[in-house]
């Protein structure tokens, strides 16, 4: 990968620019998605590792979710991309929406795979429920903290085996990158609330995808998002849960590509 503006990145293909933003902990979840023909054969795909992941620069001090949006803009500037489709998953979906709010002129469309956006009271309850995860991390048991987190977000218990099979070395890298999530990103989550005022600023086409096996947490999140942005297009992806990018990258890529084809730059 190349590095610019403190971020590791790679660019593949030609066509309309597509920026992908990965979720928490696992930096390369978009690798396989970007290799699927439905996206790889018709788009200029920009995949990068967020701060604190892989060889990208670490976080320092307190952060807000405006910082990842600023990083995305800086990378687009470096690549000479004025406007792009943006695809985000989980925490990366939250950051994609934050980018669209902060710099709407840079975002042509949004494709969100279970973005980490919940009603404020649900966010507070969810973070309270994550207390054992944080305790495990603070006690130095990173492996247990990761397992507890994956269980909390409804990822199959075999996530390590699945991830390692698809991306050798990714589990070890995830453990190294855990600090970015547990020490910086989780504390920043409550400070950025997607509300009606922010929703008004989003005029781009939006696709919101939910896994058919993901459970009630993600259905609730989808309902909340739709209540704020009712023109959102929703789709349920059969047979996948929150780990959809690695468990069925073709389904994810095809879903995104079909939407992008209807909203060209």
Overall radius of gyration: 17 Å
- Just name the CATH architecture: 3-Layer(aba) Sandwich
SSE order? EEEHHEHEHEHHHHHHEHEHH
Strand order of the largest sheet: 1-2-4-3-5-6-7-8
Helix/strand/pairing category: alpha/beta
CATH superfamily name? Alpha/Beta hydrolase fold, catalytic domain
Total helix count? 13
The biggest sheet, with number of strands, parallel, antiparallel or mixed sense and barrel status, is: 8 strands, mixed
CATH topology: Rossmann fold
Low-pLDDT runs: none
Strand runs, count: 8
Please tell me the total number of domains.
Answer: 1
CATH class identity: Alpha Beta
What gross morphology would you assign?
globular
First and last CA, distance: 26 Å
Q: State the helicity in percent bands.
A: 40-55%
Summarize model confidence as the mean pLDDT: 92
Strand content bin = 15-25%
Structure commentary:
With 265 residues, the protein is of the alpha/beta class. It has one domain: 3-Layer(aba) Sandwich (Rossmann fold). The protein has helices spanning 31-35, 37-40, 66-79, 91-102, 120-129, 131-138, 142-152, 159-166, 170-188, 196-200, 216-228, 244-247, 249-261; strands spanning 2-4, 7-12, 16-21, 43-48, 84-89, 107-113, 206-211, 233-237. Helix 3 packs across helix 4 (91-102) and helix 6 packs antiparallel against helix 7 (142-152). The chain starts with a strand and ends with a helix. The mean pLDDT is 92.
């Amino acid at each position: 990968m190349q590095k610019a503006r403190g971020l590791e990145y790679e660019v593949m293909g030609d066509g309309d620019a597509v920026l992908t933003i990965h979720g928490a902990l696992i930096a390369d979840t978009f690798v396989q998605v970007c290799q699927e023909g439905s996206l790889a054969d018709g788009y200029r795909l920009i995949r990068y590792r967020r701060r604190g992941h892989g060889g990208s620069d670490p976080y320092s001090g307190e952060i807000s979710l405006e910082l990842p949006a600023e990083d995305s803009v800086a990378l687009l500037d470096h690549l000479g991309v004025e406007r792009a489709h943006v695809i985000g998953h989980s925490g990366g979906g939250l950051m994609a929406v934050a980018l669209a709010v902060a710099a709407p002129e840079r975002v042509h469309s949004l494709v969100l795979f279970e973005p980490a956006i919940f009603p404020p009271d649900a966010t507070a309850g969810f973070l309270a429920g994550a207390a054992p995860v944080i305790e495990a991390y603070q006690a130095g048991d990173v492996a247990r903290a990761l397992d507890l987190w994956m269980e909390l977000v409804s990822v199959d218990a075999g996530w390590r085996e699945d991830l390692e099979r698809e991306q050798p070395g990714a589990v070890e890298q995830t453990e190294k990158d855990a600090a970015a999530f547990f020490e910086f990103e989780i504390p920043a989550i409550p400070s950025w609330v997607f509300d009606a005022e922010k929703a008004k600023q989003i005029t781009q086409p939006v696709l919101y995808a939910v896994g058919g096996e993901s459970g009630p947490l993600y259905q609730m999140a989808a309902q909340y998002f739709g209540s704020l942005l009712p023109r959102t297009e929703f789709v349920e992806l059969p047979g996948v849960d929150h780990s959809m990018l690695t468990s069925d990258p073709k389904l994810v890529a095809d879903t995104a590509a079909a939407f992008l084809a209807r909203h060209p730059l």
